[in-house]
Amino acid sequence: MNFVQHILTTALIATSAASFAQTTIIITTDSSTTPVKSKKYIERVTSDFSIYAGFNNFSQSPAGFKGDGGAFSPIGSRFVALAWQKRIPLAVNGSTKLRLVTGPEVAWNNFMFEDSDKLVERNNELIVEASSVELRKSKFVTTQLNLPVILNVSFRSGFTIGMGAYAGIRLDSYTKEKPQGARAVRTHGAFNLNPVRWGLTTELGFRGTAKLFGRYEPNSPFRSGQGPDASVWAVGVKF
């Protein structure tokens, strides 16, 4: 929790400081009696909306699930996030510019089971079992509200790289099974998930274009001893 508080405090301080935009004043004079002229160049805080889309999975086989099976599809398991971000100037007077990027996002981790396995919760235990009917789709989904804090460096060439961290709270989680020839069924629940999760993130690409991103959560999203002890990763493209 100290880590989460540190991230939130950093974001609040940076947002408050953004109101004091950086100003560069250039004064030009001549030998005549012309009054002194000044020009102000102000680097302002900007806002944008971004979409993250890619793949996610556990870093190792989730053997912490009870029962048989439990393998996730590497292609079907997808990550999506919708982000509202502020770009706050920190050092922008030279050819290399430093900005702080932060703002809320809603993120979805979709873990797609292979075959006809499904996840159920019984007596506070997570169990993976084969479905009694053939399933066209079976997945486990978590939704959370995150606050990333990213330091972004931009070079004269237009290449940018960002590194930072994020923390978030669980909004929802559910399983979804779609039998062959029938409607999908959703089952909502806590599924022994931690209410707060955190991770590390990096982004790289060129200014004004789509960027590659990577995320890594070193701790298991599940409570200790109540789910797989495996970290979560995600990679993809930021639009």
UniProtKB/TrEMBL annotation:
It comes from the Bacteria. Keywords: Signal. Residues 1-21 form the signal peptide. The keyword Signal applies. This is Outer membrane protein beta-barrel domain-containing protein. It comes from Spirosoma utsteinense.
